[in-house]
Specification:
heterodimer, A: 390 residues, alpha/beta, TIM Barrel, 3 domains, eight-stranded mixed sheet, three-stranded antiparallel sheet, 21 strands, 28% helix, elongated, B: 755 residues, Growth Hormone, Chain: A, Rossmann fold, seven-stranded mixed sheet, four-stranded antiparallel sheet, globular
């Protein structure tokens, strides 16, 4: 029996062997459990720790921030990353003061698509684009169509290696005239895009970027030198909407568009109209005016229809009337090429010559039914139709 | 009204209020969070958990000093206010969390809302039960009669609340009205109760006339506030939408919203479809019918109101049987969506029957069966994607007939969770149909035929059929078909599915695994790695391992500490019995839905007969309790019964599902349906008062013990409701789940025997 009158200090308490074993077991079990729980609750693992070397290559655009930490300068997020910490995009991580991309030549999705599907209507109509994507994205759009890859780090997707050389080879073998960096955000696999584009160009294959445009000026300038065309998702013109629904800042996207324009990248703009969230016609008018004044009337605008997707799954599809109004606004403001894809009720898939008003390219879905653009000019009146035609 | 009578009615009302409030809150929560089995489990668990905490906590408070009835009546008046406030909170929760319209909510915010929102109401009612036991035991010589009586009264009240609520009140009155009236009745009764307590010290309610005035004033406040609150909170709930109509059916809440020249129908807050939406309607109708060589008789299950019917009518069909699970959708569409075409056509038969029920009875054969019910997020929808249902369809399909359905997929990339989900559906179809075809896209279309070589991947063949049948399609034209049947994407998806199918189990009625995979896929929508990972990693063996560990821990807990011996184990048994009761109810519901088709009114009977069983058990023991010498012996006997019952139950279901004789099927659906839950209820009803009798040797006061044991009973039910439908039944199957229940209860039995 224990003498209850003598309080023992915990530190000097004698413990029996049994108690000792008990405590050891308890500590062991709780340590194991906490490691397991930590793993369950954490989104990212330190890549270097799990020994995954595939897809790792030193990243471009970062600066040392001391103590093994770095600041990534690729996109406006400018993540400050301690050793082993993952960037917002889920695919960039520093190891001992050196920033690595984790998805170099490590793709999770590859398809051969009609170029109209990107959508690019004023570039090599009817041709095929070899489309690739890696995991990760630096935006968080709540309606993302490709959220199963864009919102996941590479360790949670099924990947395969496709070297720069093989990518270009595969594009040529599949008789694709272009490579499209698409589905997720090509900005986050910048190094792969840059290297592939250089090689593709040397082999006569064009490069297409389908992007949200959230990138810093310097990397964008560098990339503009090798990219031929871009479809930029200008997701809206309302700052609050962009911040809340897409986690983007409008100024960043507009800067990207200006840089692309300055460097001669062919731009087409996609604007997804989400009912009640960004279907305000005043904002759309402001956006169209900005495009007209800064980029020119010849930049095609694609208004696209929202379908219940990802987190916004319980919102209804955009009313066709809303799309019609948006198109009317853009035409009113003097834009030459305003499209609404995949809504045959609106018959807004064809390219109409601003010169003579005749239909020069007739489309249905992603298929080109008729093409009367001859050497970049309208086959009827000779008006120069902007785009990449050869 | 005498004091005793007041308490009597008050306790009946408590059961009634608890059940009715549960029905209302669960439905409203579903509208906010949308339903899958896990989220429903979380909601129910939150509700039961707070009841358990309330019941347990009220024991810990030293209320003995105060007048118990007075505290009870104060709780009751507070409850009157809490009920509508809770609904207000639920409805405004999306706004409070800053969630944009149409956005799905992850499990973590859901848990925050559920566990905070339901806390007050459920806690109060849990506390009121245990207080009620203490009040009532002052009326009886042996306090245990009191506990048994309260248990019975509560069960009867709950029975009435559940039936009246689901089948009458919900359908005819807005939820806020129901709660306001319920609150008022509670308030009125609490005033009367306080009037009785007022004998000694209460000054305010001394005069009867004062009470009457107070009641009238309260009525005015409640009822005038009711309408305002209903409108106000409904606006909060549907913020950003233009709601044209909202109705409640036995199945759920249906809302029609209006936009520019289009309407959208929401069921339980989830977007069902939009009218007009030619794209979806054409896909649903034409992909299936174009694959069918000569579609004459078509069976359409669900989704007819979005224009699919009129698209089907474009084909040379002779007859369409259209089944809608919830007739309210049809009546609402007819009323508010006059542009809906097809319903009035003479070729269309609208049949208000459950499709599982219908397909067993019908003696027609079809050329094409189109299932348009969306993803199997709930067990109810999952019934239409099981190998058993496919077999039933196959029997009603002409040679060369085609079956089709579509579920959420991803066009450019299929991840592991999605692969399991699609793979399990694919293998289930393959089990029955020799020819299966899957079309990739953001919706994957599954097509199957009972004759090999019927289905074609060749868009040219299909577009020739479009011309032959002179279809006036806007979307489904050759260019679209070429994209949809893109060889490269078809191969990508089919390779994945074949790969997945090799290691996948079929989705069956008794093991609805696709429902689980769908829930797992759902969890990938959110940035919640914990839920995503745990749902992805759960394996059958793991659950068994964990169960064995828990059982060992229970044995250790009950046998190692010698201090309280039997009492502790008995309390443990109350908890495992609570778990058992929930499992039996869910298993019976799922089995009967599968075997006999979904007859909603009979679902009510299942719950009702269970509640009745509780009452019967309670009454039985109340009458006999004086004559029993060895309570523990009887308790052990019942525990043996519970174990045997969990072991026998699944085989009874299996056997019922296999027999074809009409006599057996009549017996099954009408007699056994009510019989099975009654027995489970009776066993629970006997055990609960007995447990109190046994334990009270140690803890002073019957009411206090009742508080603890009731809390544990609810806690067991809470665990059961969280896990049963969402995880255990899909992963282990009904048989496995019943075995697991048996194992848990056997452990307790062993512990009882040993001590």
């Amino acid at each position: 029996m224990k003498d209850l009158n003598v309080p023992e200090s915990i530190w000097h308490k004698k413990i029996s062997r049994r108690d000792f074993l008990k405590k050891c077991a308890a500590i062991g079990i709780s340590a194991g459990a906490s490691i397991y729980l930590f793993d369950m609750f954490s989104k990212y693992k330190a890549y270097a720790l799990i020994g995954e070397k595939r897809g790792m290559k030193e990243a471009m655009f970062y600066e040392n921030a001391g103590d093994g930490a770095v600041r990534c300068l690729l996109c406006p997020n400018k993540c400050f990353l301690a050793d082993g910490q993952r960037g917002f995009c889920g695919v960039r991580e520093p190891v001992k003061g050196k920033l690595y991309t984790l998805v170099y030549e490590l793709i999770c999705s590859v398809h051969v698509d009609p170029i109209e599907k990107k959508p690019l209507f004023h570039m090599l109509p009817g041709s095929k684009a070899f489309s690739v994507a890696t995991a990760g994205c630096n935006s968080r759009c709540k309606y993302c169509q490709n959220w199963t890859i864009s919102q996941r780090p590479p360790e949670e997707t099924t990947n395969r290696r496709l070297s720069v050389k093989d990518l270009v080879g595969a594009a040529i073998n599949n008789s694709c005239r272009s490579i499209a960096y698409t589905y997720t955000e090509p900005i986050v696999f910048y190094e792969y895009v840059l290297d592939s584009s250089i090689l593709a160009r040397e082999n006569g294959v064009r490069n297409i970027m389908v992007t949200g445009g959230k990138i810093n000026a310097e990397p964008m300038r560098k990339l503009s030198g090798v990219i031929d065309a871009a479809n930029v998702d200008l997701k809206g013109f309302n700052k609050e909407y962009l911040r809340k629904v897409c986690s983007q800042d409008l100024d960043d996207i507009l800067r990207t568009l200006t840089i692309m324009k300055e460097n001669g990248v062919w731009i087409e703009i996609t604007n997804l109209i989400v009912p009640t969230l960004n279907d305000n016609m005043d904002d759309i008018r402001k956006m169209v005016r900005w495009i007209r004044d800064e980029l020119g009337k010849d930049v095609p605008i694609h208004f696209s229809r929202f379908w219940p997707q990802y987190k916004l799954r319980s919102l209804y599809p955009t009313p066709i009337e809303t799309l019609r109004s948006a198109r009317d606004v853009a035409l009113e403001e003097g834009m030459h090429y305003v499209y609404i894809g995949n809504v045959p009720e609106l018959e807004a898939e064809n390219t109409v010559c601003p010169g003579c008003g005749k239909t020069v390219i007739k489309r249905m879905g992603y298929k080109v039914l008729e093409n009367n653009v001859k050497k970049g000019k309208c086959g009827f009146c000779g008006y120069s139709i902007a785009g990449i035609w050869e | 009204m005498s004091f005793k009578k007041t308490v009597f009615i008050s306790l009946l009302l408590l059961g009634f209020t608890a059940m009715l409030a549960q029905v209302v809150f669960m439905r409203e929560l579903l509208v906010v969070f949308y339903g899958n089995e896990l989220s429903i489990g979380i909601m129910l668990a939150g509700w039961l958990l707070w009841g358990a905490v309330g019941s347990y906590a009220s024991v810990k408070f030293r209320i003995a000093r105060y007048d118990k009835a007075r505290i009870y009546s104060i709780c009751q008046s507070v409850l009157a206010v809490i009920l509508p406030v809770t609904l207000l909170f639920i409805r405004s929760s999306r706004g409070l969390l800053g969630i944009s319209i149409g956005e799905m909510i992850g499990y973590i915010p859901m848990m925050i809302i559920v566990f905070t929102g339901l806390s007050a109401a459920s806690f109060l009612m849990g506390a009121m039960f245990s207080l009620g036991c203490r009040v009532w035991s002052t009326f009886t010589e042996d306090p245990f009669f009191g506990v048994a009586k309260v248990y019975v009264l509560e069960a009867i009240g709950a029975l009435a609340g559940g039936l009246l609520g689901t089948y009458f009140l919900i359908r005819n009155f807005p939820p806020m009205y129901i709660l306001v009236v319920l609150g008022f009745v509670n308030f009125a009764l609490s005033i009367i109760m306080r009037h009785h307590c007022a004998g000694k010290e209460n000054v305010i309610f001394r005069k009867r006339i004062g009470n009457v005035i107070l009641l009238i004033a309260a009525a005015a406040v409640f009822f005038s506030g009711g309408k305002y609150l209903e409108d106000f909170s409904a606006k909060l709930l549907w913020k950003g939408f233009k709601v044209k109509a909202s109705e409640n059916s036995v199945y759920g809440n249906i809302v029609i919203t209006e936009q520019r020249k289009q309407h959208s129908i929401y069921e339980n807050g989830l977007h069902l479809y939009t009218v007009p939406d030619r794209f979806s309607a054409e896909n649903t109708a034409h992909l299936a019918l174009l694959e069918t060589k000569s579609p004459e008789r078509v069976l359409l299950i669900g989704g007819g109101m979005n224009g699919t019917l009129s698209e089907i009518l474009e084909h040379p069909v002779k007859e369409i049987d259209y089944l809608e699970l919830d007739p309210t959708i049809i009546t609402m569409a007819e009323k508010y969506l006059p542009e809906t075409k097809g319903i009035g056509d003479e070729k269309v038969n609208v049949i208000n029957l459950d499709a599982r029920f219908f397909i067993k009875q019908v003696d027609k054969k079809y050329d094409c069966v189109i299932i348009d019910l969306g993803d199997p997020y709930t067990a109810q929808i999952n019934r239409f994607y099981t190998v058993d249902f496919f077999r039933e369809i196959n029997r009603k399909l002409r040679p060369g007939g085609v079956v089709s359905f579509s579920v959420t997929s991803s066009e450019n990339y299929v991840g592991e969770e999605l692969k399991r989900y699609l793979g399990s559906l694919y293998i289930s179809l393959k089990k029955v149909f020799p020819d299966v075809l899957v079309l990739p896209g953001d919706r994957a279309y599954f097509l199957a035929s009972n004759k090999k070589g019927m289905l074609t991947y060749d868009p040219k063949v299909l577009s020739r059929r479009i011309q032959e049948r002179m279809l006036d399609t806007k979307y489904i034209r050759e260019p679209y078909l070429i994209d949809r049947f893109s060889e490269e994407r078809v191969i990508y998806l089919n390779d994945l599915l074949n790969d997945a199918a090799s290691e996948m189990d079929v989705n069956s009625d008794f093991r609805p695994i696709s429902n689980y995979y769908a829930t797992s896929f759902w969890s990938t929508h959110f940035d919640e790695p914990f839920f995503r990972k745990i749902l992805f990693r759960i394996r059958e063996e793991w659950i068994w391992l964990l169960t064995v560990l828990i059982c060992l821990a229970m044995l250790f807990f009950s046998l190692a500490g010698r201090k309280r011996g039997v009492e502790r184990i008995v309390l443990l048994a109350v908890m495992t019995t609570g778990f058992f009761e929930i499992i039996v109810q869910i298993a019976v519901i799922l089995s009967f839905q599968a075997i006999y088709g979904y007859v909603f009114y009979k679902l009510g009977i299942i719950i009702a007969s269970f509640m009745a069983g509780l009452a019967v058990g309670g009454i039985l023991i109340e009458k006999r309790i004086g004559n029993i010498r060895d309570y523990v012996k009887i308790f052990i006997l019942v525990q043996v019964g519970i174990c045997l019952y969990s072991l026998v139950l699944p085989f009874m279901f299996k056997w019922l599902s296999l027999t074809d004789s009409p006599v057996m099927s009549w017996l099954g659906s009408n007699i056994l349906l009510t019989f099975i839950p009654i027995i489970a209820g009776i066993m629970g009803g006997i055990q609960f008062p007995l447990a109190n009798k046994i334990c009270a040797k140690d803890i002073s006061g019957a009411g206090e013990v009742a508080g603890v044991s009731y809390g544990l009973d609810l806690a067991g039910a809470c665990v059961g409701s969280l896990l049963a439908a969402a995880v255990l039944i899909p992963v282990l199957g009904i048989v496995g789940t019943c075995m697991l229940t048996a194992l848990v209860n056997l452990t307790v039995l062993a512990a009882l025997k040993v001590s």
